[in-house]
Amino acid sequence: MITVRSTRILLYVVLVLFVVAFVMPFWADITTSLKTNVDVITTVPVVPPLSPTLEPWAIAFKTMGQPLLNSLTFTIFATIFSCLIGSINGYALSKIRFRGSNMLFLFFSIGIFIPYQTVLIPLVLTMSRLGLFNTVWALILAHTVYGIPMCTLLFRNFYKDIPESLTMAAKTDGAGTLKIYQSILLPLSALPFVVSGVFQFTSIWNDYLFGLILAQGIGAQPASVALANLKGTTTASWNVLMAGAIWYALPLVIVYLVLGKYLMKGYMAGAVKG
Amino acid sequence: MVGLLILLPSIALVGYFVYASIGYNVLVSFTDWNQLRPSYNIAGFSHYAELLRDSVFRVSLLNNLFLILLFVPSTIGLGLVLAILLDNRVRGEGVFRTIYLLPFSLSFAITASLWAWMYDPTNGVINTLLRSAGLGSLASGWVTDSSLTLYCVILALVWQFSGYIMLLFLAGIRSIPESQVMAAEVDGASRFRLYWRIIIPQLKSSTLATFVILMVFGLKAFDFINILTGGGPGYSTFVLPLDMYRETFGLDHYAYGAAIATILFMVVMVIVVPYLYMSSRRSEG
Fold first, then answer.
1. ipTM higher than 0.85?
2. B118 to chain A: which residues are within 8 Å by CB?
3. Would you report the helix, strand and coil content of chain B in percent, each value rounded to 5?
4. Which of A26, A74, B12, B259 has the least CB density, counted as fewest CB within 10 Å?
5. Upper half-sphere CA count for residue A79 (Cβ side, 13 Å)
6. Cβ of A11 and B85 within 8 Å?
7. Could you give the CA distance from residue B72 to residue B214 in angstroms, rounded to a whole number?
8. Is the residue at B186 inside a domain?
9. pLDDT tens for residues B229-238?
10. Do the beta carbons of residue B107 and residue A208 sit within 8 Å?
11. What is the architecture of the domain spanning A57-273?
12. In this complex, do B125 and A25 lie within 8 Å of one another by their Cβ atoms?
């Protein structure tokens, strides 16, 4: 009995040690963001400040405010668009029989894995030709399009598990293809919409590469690029950089705390199918 | 027919922005477009021949391979350990899981900023902690030391990804029928034997998925490295995506950058296509 108890204690000790290692960078981020410039240089980062200040947060928000708004704009629009398109696609791929639907499955799957470096040059050309370069619209379009494959597969996998008998019954009642989608599948789609919505929100909100390539101008610049620039330009003001990182993380942490378990589901689906 | 009709807009969009764009990129790599203004005279395979002689490309490729070789097994190992530890009816499992998964959910722009502060040689977290623990002799330049910086990148990436791998393994472990675990326990198998003989062998498909995901990520890793080190010091953390970015958008060598991107694409596809083929056959069968 003693050995059982001591291995249990050991288990928790190890788990907590991992927690310390995982949390350390976040903890140092928070303490540093609350310190004055002098404290940043003279104190140990993980030790909380004796006289906390919110000034770094204010300074960081001055540069991050507009980019955060930009990020919020294109993230919300692209999330909605890609999920809606993914839903109707998933329906077509799972519930309607037609030649080549397996080919299309592969067609979309590969879209999930491509290294975006391979499409950057044509993407820049296309966006300039459309007159969207350096606008949030470029990011909305890019994130919607490159989100379609993942969303399509997420919805397809979900709809596949809905019994054929349901859609068949509606069909014999004379319901059309779109009517079946609207009246049967859509009302059952709350879960996949939340899962793929949270998944898309996370990956679009976190994107850096597309923002770097397509939107350097301040009117469209995402928060990721703004934060990276903050790191590049103010190497001395670590407190401001750490505060900026918190500003940028905040919306996502809120989503994560409220809908975290759906995000996990999205991650799993992402792993199983791509 | 209606099915195809519904999918047509998406097929067109993905066809253009993914497949046609890849094709276009390959075409650009065969032209002489190596200045800002587009130019489409045929240069044949000359850029690919040049890549063979390009020492920055060679360093990037080797760094990429080294990163994968160290990052993938370390992340899978740590993820598996975390999953096995948590699979012991741990009280507050959800809290532990959330904490371990938190780094994975955040943008590389954030995690790179956090680790820049961890590794900062003068006032950063690691060095000041070492100094105040009396271990000042272990303090080092970290990301500013070209012999260490790639290890610094890898350590931070393991930190960011292992929670995700833990989640996948945990799901795999939980899907193993309870009866098998019970049977082994009745037979008096030790905890260690139970995992080694019964559970780990059944995690094959989870492991394959994690391998592919991490390898592909290791090949495409750009955001984190570009923000944390910018590829430096020198070329010590240059990887293919960074080399492609620098050649294309830094030096306006569009054709040359396109050639690097094409190589990167082919390497990724060599890993992904067999995996997709296998998993699509499995899901049909």
1. yes
2. 24-25, 28
3. 75, 0, 20
4. B12
5. 22
6. yes
7. 6
8. no
9. 999 899 999 9
10. yes
11. Orthogonal Bundle (1.10)
12. yes
